[in-house]
Write a structure and sequence with these properties.
The structure is a single chain. Helix content is 44%, strand content 15%. The strands form two sheets. Strands 4-3-2-1-5-6-7 form a seven-stranded parallel β-sheet, with helices on both faces. A four-stranded antiparallel β-sheet has the order 8-9-11-10.
């Protein structure tokens, strides 16, 4: 067996040799070879260790759902995508429906694609506004059989999921922005999960917009709750309130999304170091200023500019970098830094 950076194996020579043959058959890139071997090893270990039908069904369905989603989205890696969440019960006559539809339409005009949960209400409005060529639908199988809305039905980018956790993973992994319209438990669940993942650094910073027409009270009431109960009782920090933006206007929403990625491109965590990829290199005086203004999140030395690191596996080699030692806890401040970079380099 070729040398591996790890020693994860079945522990039976015959099985490990067969796994190695399957790895060779797949002809993977060098950087994913060990990962593929681990996936295959886990599958064999599961087959040897588990006889519980329910557990096997769960793992089987989850892996198949994730694999298929990766296949669908892989052709659109270079296109920004926004996920629109909101109530399935919102009627076509509701101003929120019309706002969601117009937002998705404007996203398409701006070169973005739209992802929804494929159901009715706000989800229907999102697919309707984006149009069939710029829509994704990630449907969920429910006891009462949620049907895909007519604007995504039959679309090759419509996916059907059995489990909420794989569905929510796909929403986050395959989107670059989260747009939340008023909704019920499901919308709040998706909103809280997004905020939690960004707040804890389990996903990189992103635009999170709380959207409703002017005069609406849904998000105003929620923000008041967050301020009164969460911040006041020190359950979250006041900085965490900067993770989202309340928006009443479609133009404002599109402008916010476009500005967020105007200079900022993407980010990677490498140990305690943050690598921020940018569309333009910042001048030295700005880097020094950011190091001073965000000294509270730095653990060692100032921010520095440079090129891609070997640990990035060749991702986006032509983009300049901003790197610094991060305290690995102030993720709301990290989001604020991105807003500042976009503002200062606009």
């Amino acid at each position: 067996m070729p040398n591996s950076k790890n020693h994860y194996s079945v522990g039976q020579a015959k099985a490990d040799q067969l796994i190695e043959k399957l790895v060779e058959f797949c002809e993977p890139r060098a950087e994913i070879r060990d990962l593929l071997r681990e996936i295959l090893t886990t599958s064999v270990k599961l087959g040897l260790e588990s006889s519980h039908v329910g557990e096997m069904k769960l793992i089987n369905s989850s892996l198949k759902e994730m694999r298929y989603a990766l296949k669908v989205f892989c052709a659109y890696e270079d296109t920004r995508r926004a996920v629109i969440f909101g109530s399935a019960r919102t009627p076509e006559t509701d101003p929120c429906y019309r706002m969601a539809m117009e937002t998705a339409k404007r996203l398409t005009e701006a070169g973005w694609m739209t992802i929804t949960g494929a159901g009715g209400g706000i989800m229907e409005a999102g697919n309707r506004g984006a149009g069939p060529d710029n829509s994704f639908g990630i449907n969920i199988s429910l006891p009462f059989e949620q049907q895909a809305n007519p604007y995504i039905q039959g679309n090759p980018r419509l996916m059907h999921f059995r489990y909420f956790f794989t569905r929510k993973l796909t929403f986050m992994k395959e989107s670059h922005a989260t747009l939340l319209f008023p909704g019920g438990f499901g919308t709040l669940d998706e909103g809280y999960e997004t905020l939690t993942l960004v707040q804890t650094g389990k996903t990189e910073p992103r635009p999170i917009l709380l959207m409703e027409p002017a005069g609406g009270t849904y998000w105003k009431s929620w923000i008041q709750f967050a301020e009164r109960e969460l911040v006041r009782q020190n359950l979250i920090s006041s900085d965490d309130l900067s993770l989202f933006e309340r928006v009443h206007d479609v133009d404002e929403a599109i402008r916010y999304l476009q500005n967020y990625y105007k200079v900022f491109h993407s980010m990677r965590y490498i140990g305690d170091q943050v690598i921020v990829r940018l569309h333009q290199a910042p001048p030295t005086e700005l880097t020094k200023k950011w190091s001073q203004d965000f000294a509270d999140i730095l653990t060692q030395g100032p921010m520095e500019t440079g090129s891609n690191l070997p640990e990035e596996n060749g991702e986006f080699p032509g983009l300049p970098r901003l790197s610094f030692k991060f305290n690995n806890k102030s993720f709301a401040r990290l989001h604020q830094l991105i807003l500042r970079i976009n503002q200062d380099l606009a």
